[in-house]
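Appendix B, record 7
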Amino acid sequence: MQAWGIVVVILTMLMVATVDTKIYERCDLAMKLEKAGLNGFLGYGIGDWLCVAHYKSGFDTSFVNHNPDGSSEYGIFQLNSAWWCDNGVTPTQNLCHMECHDLLNRHILDDIMCAKQVVSSWNGMNAWDSWTRHCYGHDLSEWLKGCNMHAKPDTKRMTS
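Structure tokens (predicted):
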């Protein structure tokens, strides 16, 4: 009987831990990113941000990736524990001054603020290898198709 009590407590804790996560729909995320001021931030459009988030996390706020070097990447933009956040395990620069677990919930404003710092501190979106491989130089207008919003793709940057 006591074992069932422990199982119930563990299952309840797991459910509570996952309730606050979200896998965003593309257009919902696009509107959230636009509202947070990412359209045009340092010359990057919403399509750039959607492309990175898709290839890094599949728009999943709870996604964690463990790297061979011992660091881990967290959240919708996969921010690395060696540089951007503190996971309590990896030696870190913690340049965003935050706990990595704070990147794993549906409230992505802190993720966005840290991602802005990444783009400002490093060589733009080249900080994400997935942006270089899948997004740079590609027509990113597809990421905004069907979304009812003001953001438009930056066609000048796509051709330069």
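Remarks on this record: Strands lie at 64-66, 72-74, 79-80. The two ends are 68 Å apart (CA to CA).
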